[in-house]
Amino acid sequence: MRGALLVAGTSSDAGKSVLVAGICRWLARQGVRVAPFKAQNMSNNSAVTVEGGEIGRAQATQARAAGLEPSVRFNPVLLKPGSDRSSQVVLLGKPVGTLRDYRQRDFGATVLSTLDGLRRDFDVVVCEGAGSPAEVNLRDGDVANMGLARAADLPVLVVGDIDRGGVLAHLFGTLAVLGPADQAMIQAFVVNKFRGDRGLLQPGLDWLTGATGRPVLGVLPWREELWLDTEDSLSYAADGVIGRPPPPHGDQWLRVAVVRLPRISNATDVEALACEPGVAVRFVTEPSRLTDADLVVVPGSKSTVDDLRWLRERGFADALVRSDVPVVGICGGFQMLGTRIVDHVESGAGAAAGLGLLDLDVEFEQEKTLARPVGTAFGHPVSGYEIHHGRVVRQAAPGLVERPDGSFEGAVTDRVMGTHWHGLLDNDAFRRHVLRWAAARAGRAGFVPAPDTSVAAARAAQLDVLGDLVAAHLDTGELVRLIERGPERDLPHLVVTTT
Length: 499
Prior knowledge:
Layout: E1 3-9, H1 16-29, E2 34-37, E3 40-42, E4 46-48, E5 54-56, H2 57-65, E6 77-81, E7 87-91, E8 94-99, H3 108-121, E9 124-128, H4 146-152, E10 156-161, H5 167-176, H6 180-183, E11 186-194, H7 198-212, E12 216-221, E13 254-259, E14 264-265, H8 271-274, E15 279-284, E16 295-298, E17 300-301, H9 304-314, H10 316-322, E18 327-330, H11 332-336, E19 340-343, E20 350-353, E21 360-371, E22 374-377, E23 380-383, E24 386-395, E25 401-402, E26 408-409, E27 411-412, E28 416-419, H12 428-442, H13 455-473, H14 476-485
Parallel strand pairs: 1-9, 1-10, 2-9, 3-6, 10-11, 11-12, 13-15, 13-16, 16-18, 18-28, 19-21
Antiparallel strand pairs: 4-5, 6-7, 7-8, 14-17, 19-20, 21-24, 22-23, 25-26, 27-28
Family: Belongs to the CobB/CobQ family. CobQ subfamily.
Pfam families: CbiA, GATase_3
Keywords: Cobalamin biosynthesis, Glutamine amidotransferase
């Protein structure tokens, strides 16, 4: 079996990432050497690869679904928004500058050469589009959706989210607004997040096939347990609950408030807490939400100084300084907890006062730290990954993690922990220590961390669920034929008329 496929979506968060992961998992189970690929991603949730580069977190998850280590080849272009009008450009894993308009750069040659290499090295490459191919205002210079499909001769499968409503119009309209050559690449549809009686939906699916000449390859049901490793910011709603934690292992809940920064990055760090029985994790945008929290997490940020200013404007800074609630800061959030930040790189703001909860100073450097370190914390072996420009240049607070060379990373006091390491809470024994610490400070003697929660096992189980959904609810025979044969270009063309 050899070939490739592009999974496009009617919108962001329609289900492209999970469908690609599910197809990769299903193919890998069949013994197929499969790799994921996203030409161009725009996200502040990223991961560090085996080469020491940076890619979108969704592609790292898809790599794990395929049984691979994350590689820069799976996401050659990553755009990390620092504001509404500018993004840092990460090319083949390394930052190469900032764009105020991503169309200023032509990434086509890099994208196509990387995809060609993957197609030589793997039996199948499952590509993920970006946003929606129906964004006709962005069609010129497109390298992620129909531009990629036509340049690489990829059959396109379009997925739509029925939970939002209007999925038939979304699927039909996505096809209809495209030009004839782009329409010819779209071969089939998939409906995602369906709940209810399939029989009630079937007449609509029959109409869609009749109107477009393209089949619906399957309807994927809604599954509540699929929430880990969410990349899209739409999934991190303000004042929204993360995950669906089981009841407490003891007789009390522990309440965690995660500050929903405007430029939040790697928000997936806190998902490990939400895996724990009896731990209720919520994003918050108002300081009043901190009054009943047992633990506050200040997560990473793609614009640390700007988000620190936002903390002050919203009243979070005063609330955190005056409160006794324990605080964990991660990456940008860690930097905000210090005494002073000097940033001539990310924001150009120069010196800014931190919150002063940790006695340390941070300076930003041009070269970004990208690493997958290991160490020991509270007697437990830990690992994580680093993605940051800021470096600690003065520190009086005790270190949190001891590295193998005897140096320390992060900081810890009776009330505050901070680290540059993303993924530190994924370490099960370390996470349980943090929960016991927070519960003790909050006076929640009835909270007992579960002794056997494994975040790695939870993530692997979700990938297995995705593979099971593909096997049970997609026409896998037609999926394989589509991958092997490529696009059929004689499908009906829809004509949109305007008056």
